[in-house]
Amino acid sequence: MVDSELDLVFNLQCLQKRSARKRFRRSILDEWPECGYCGRHNPSTLDHVIPRACGGKTNKHNLIGACADCNLLKSDTDWFTWYRSQEFWTSEREDKILSWINQPEFEPPSPVFVNWMEPGALLLPSAA
Ligand SMILES: [Zn+2]
Fold first, then answer.
1. Distance from the CA of 95 to the center of ligand 1, in angstroms?
2. What's the CA-to-centroid distance between 18 and ligand 1, angstroms?
3. What is the pLDDT of residue 14?
4. Is residue 125 a contact partner of residue 47, using CB atoms and an 8 Å limit?
5. Residue 70 Cα to ligand 1 middle (Å)
6. Mean pLDDT of 44-70
7. Residue 4, pLDDT above cutoff 80
8. How far is residue 111's CA from residue 28's CA, in Å, rounded to a whole number?
9. How far apart are CA 109 and CA 116, in angstroms?
10. Cα dihedral 44, 51, 13, 31 sign
11. Per-residue confidence (pLDDT) for residue 127, from 0 to 100
12. Could you tell me the distance, in angstroms and rounded to a whole number, from the CA of residue 91 to the centre of ligand 1?
């Protein structure tokens, strides 16, 4: 039920944000059907390759699909150093990450996604 025109506008904006978040997430996970680091299937989180604590942006080409284990283990460390010290490191996946994060970014980061990507909101399926 909608009580007023303002409520309707508010509801529409919420739906658009939710749908925009889903599209944003999908556009990344389509490119990352496996964890970008260890290669396990069905990554359940998006990871900031360059951590936000180190100035990494919440935009498409700083985010990759990652399993929860890798996301937690990597945390705010430098991804390149961390990844090279992992037993599951491969040059193929490292190259894929490098070419992904070096793609030009056309869209400015949206504040809509910043809140959504706060720690604790990283387990995406239940947050949808
Ligand atoms: Zn992983």
1. 16
2. 26
3. 80
4. no
5. 4
6. 94
7. no
8. 18
9. 12
10. negative
11. 43
12. 15
CA 124 to ligand 1 centroid distance, Å: 15
CA of 30 from ligand 1 middle (Å) equals 16
Ligand 1 centroid, distance to 3 Cα (angstroms): 46
Structural contact between residues 63 and 71, judged by C-beta atoms closer than 8 angstroms: no
- In this predicted model, what pLDDT tens digit does every residue of 30-44 receive, in sequence order? 999 999 999 998 899
Q: Using the mean position of ligand 1's atoms as its centre, give its distance from the Cα of residue 45 in Å.
A: 10
The ranges assigned to domains in the chain are 28-117
Average pLDDT of the chain is: 84
Percentage of the chain lying above the pLDDT 70 cut: 80
Q: How far apart are CA 47 and CA 63, in angstroms?
A: 5
29: CA distance to ligand 1 center in Å? Answer: 14
pLDDT, tens digit, 9 for 90 and up, residues 71-109: 999 999 999 999 999 999 999 999 999 999 998 876 555
CB contact set of 99 (below 8 Å; sequence gap of 6+): none
